[in-house]
Amino acid sequence: MELLTRMMALQEEHGAVTDEVLRALSLETRTPLYHLEGLRGFYPVFRSAPGEATQVQICRDIACAMKGGAGHCARVAEALRDLPGVEVEEVSCLGRCDSAPASAINEVPVSGTPAEIRAYAAGDTPLPPDEPATPNRWPTDPYPDQAARYGVLRKLLAAADGEAGRKEVVDTLKAAGLRGMGGAGFPTGMKWDFTARAQGDPKYVVCNADESEPGTFKDRMILEELPHLMIEAMVLGGWVTGANEGIVYLRHEYGREKKALQAALEAARQAGAIGPSVLGSGFAFDLRIFVSPGGYILGEETAMLEALEDKRGEPRNKPPFPTNHGLWGKPTLINNVETFAAIPVILHKGAEWWNAQGKGDFQGLKYLSVSGDVADPGVYCVPMGTTIAELLDICGGVPGGKALGAFAPGGASSNFLPANKADVPLDFQALQEAGSMLGSGAVIFAGEDRDLLELALNVTRFFRNESCGKCVPCRVGSHKAVALVEAALNETGPNAAPRPGLVGLLGELNHTLARTSICGLGQVALGPLMSVIENFPAAAKRLENTAAKRLDNTAASRLDPGGDLEKDGGTDKKGSGP
Amino acid sequence: MSAENNTDNNTVTLTIDGKSVTVAQGVTLWEAAREIGIDIPVLCHSPRMRPVGVCRMCVVDIGERVLAAACVRECAEGMTVATGGAEVEGHRRVLSQLLLSDYPDHSRREATTGDDALLELARSQGIVEIPYPEEPAGEGAAADDAAARGEDDSSPVIHVDHQACILCDRCIRACDELQHNDVIGRTGKGYTTRIAFDLDNPMGQSTCVACGECMACCPTGALTDKGLAGIRVERKG
């Protein structure tokens, strides 16, 4: 944390982490240069030379591509081209899919047409206020007012028998069937139990607030409007597992939310809910915010731990898992923002109450990020078991009187399902059985006239762009998959060489990525693409019916043992670059 | 390693390809397999080094949702491991094909020490076709694509061909962990990841002392001996 924090501060000061800056830092901190280069080259926030005064970032991912239309990023860039002192960059999802097409100007979120973005960048239109919104009432907040906050924590810490209290917390979470809301759905009670039982000292509590998956922004709302619930659960997590230190790993683009979180932390400190003796109990717990230097992969929990240890954010080989071997090799409790924020109300009202909130046989409440072809995109809190069709009604349906064509129920990494499966209930198991997943609870709707192959290609590009590059299948495979599909769709590139059998080849590649990649990113990278191919036969046809130009297979000649290597002494190189 | 040790708390017993084997706790699947004469292919791993599990060539089936990298996965009591089979071998072939699709037409390692591990593995796998495009296509790829990775001829001793680099991290571990010279690391991210010297300087202008450990550990034509390349030509004459 210290080194990356220093680098971010140095960049703030110098406009870049130049070679000169890094050489000085290397001497001062006795860190090898290669290590600093590794960080500078990995994290998107860092730059090696100062940029222009006005930085414009344009989101290129699914919800914004849908709302902005084809070529949106290029049109914004073109509109800004002649503005002096303005630098434009296409970036991955900014987490503002509800106000798509999203951009950011000097990290202030904006939305609008190319002309509107130009007006912001030129200073003709003042930037919108970048302050937290007035919080709404949400059904997972058990506290009627600010004075009542931290009531669950107060009650538990005041009880005479701490061990019984800790057991009660774990048992209640298990009874409530709460599962991780970041995407993986691991049972929360079990995770708390494992971390509590793990040997090691000190232990840590980390909140994964690095929500970065296209279509996903519900944690953003919780950070802005309900941060006290997350803080309370993190303190409880520390008390239950035996940790005295908590870290909120916050995604870089959530500046507005950071302000809300900081204010909530200050209020918690004043109320005594964090500090050297939490609510006078003698239990010490402190909490700090670490702002991510950027990148979707940092939401993978072990990549996040690597970043917290000032390394390149590359996922670890597992096992061991963080509950036993987390930050600095110590037991670490990691939960997502929404998961933590659900805990106070469950402990306040009981597991039975929580379970009764679901529809029918389903349990609990779920925050959903709704985006795409929908009248009222935004964050919704609905009973678990609500169907996709019901959700679409709640959100005003598909605009323009169009019918639903398809939907992705759990973020960009979830498989697309056809509209005829819209009666599937929002639930971990039900969605899995339907061939997709609840994932991060980001529902992306696509109208009947959407080019689903284009949408699938967009999310495949996202995973290619966000691959950390650690392991071969993801690093090379995601890139080749995009190249193959782009070539088949006759987009760009010198290798427009589609061929019959492409669907089979992509299927084989998908299987290898799913089975051999180190982390979830590589494992799911081609899933959405394959889901469109499998669920929408017309898409598969389009990939294979293009001109059957054979791939020029000179590459195979490389395997000729000895062979032509003898001819030229192995020194004749193609493409000798710098 | 014998069955008599079975009751010892410091050992675990597992089944690899139908054979029962008892090993000390902490031994990896790759090591245990080797004990009983089963070679699991690797590119990134070397017994001299800390395993990193990045090439994924050593994946084996232990009945989990995903395959396990044998070089980093520790043996566990009662584990049943399949080191081969159609699926596992199929994945290894795909991984080889992916790496070969970006590989230079001529490996400098074949032309010098003649021990290019990637080509040797691919030959043993019977790969004759590479179904993936050689040049990266599409938006965003052009500026940083593989073809632009290039070469670095600045060191008097070692030739660097980034195009032949498969990012196995052997040179990184050789430089930083075996020799403690602390010069080599990864820079960039995703498909544009490269090895880099110091602050991504040319090797000859970095703090490299030309010890040659990276070159000796490199399994491909990425880091090769400039001197040997010359000798080879003479030998041919």
Strand-helix topology:
The complex is a heterodimer of chains A (578) and B (237).
Chain A lengths: L1 H13 L4 H11 L3 H10 L11 E6 L2 H7 L3 H9 L5 E6 L10 E4 L2 E4 L2 H9 L28 H8 L3 H15 L11 H10 L6 E6 L8 H8 L1 H15 L3 E6 L4 H17 L14 E6 L9 H8 L23 E5 H13 L1 H6 L8 E8 L5 E6 L4 H7 L9 E5 L8 E2 L9 H6 L8 E6 L4 H15 L5 H17 L13 H15 L3 H5 L2 H9 L1 H8 L19 H5 L10
Helix pairs in contact in A: 1-2, 5-6, 8-9, 10-12, 11-14, 18-19, 18-22, 19-20, 22-23
Chain B lengths: L10 E6 L2 E6 L4 H7 L23 E2 L7 E2 L10 E2 L4 H16 L6 H4 L5 H8 L26 E2 L5 E4 L8 H9 L5 E4 L6 E4 L15 H5 L5 E3 H11 L1
Parallel strand pairs in B: 1-5
Antiparallel strand pairs in B: 1-2, 3-4, 6-7, 7-10, 8-9
- N-to-C terminal Cα separation of chain A, in Å? 34 Å
Order of helices and strands of chain B: EEHEEEHHHEEHEEHEH
Helix count of chain A equals 24
Number of beta-strand segments of chain A: 13
What is the CATH topology of the largest domain in chain A?
Rossmann fold
| Largest beta-sheet details of chain B | 3 strands, mixed
How many domains comprise the coordinates of chain A? 5
Strand-residue proportion of chain A: 5-15%
Helix content of chain B: 25-40%
CATH superfamily of the largest domain in chain A: NADH-ubiquinone oxidoreductase 51kDa subunit
pLDDT average of chain B, as an integer?
Answer: 90
Class of the largest domain in chain A, according to the CATH hierarchy? Answer: Alpha Beta
CATH architecture level-2 label of the domain at 9-87 in chain B: Roll
Helix content of chain A: 40-55%
Biggest sheet of chain A, open or closed, and with what strands and sense?
5 strands, mixed
Q: Give the structural class of chain B.
A: alpha+beta
Q: Regarding CATH, which class of the domain at 9-87 in chain B?
A: Alpha Beta
Tell me the strand order in the biggest sheet of chain B.
2-1-5
Oligomeric organization of the protein chains: heterodimer
* CATH T-level topology of the domain at 9-87 in chain B: Ubiquitin-like (UB roll)
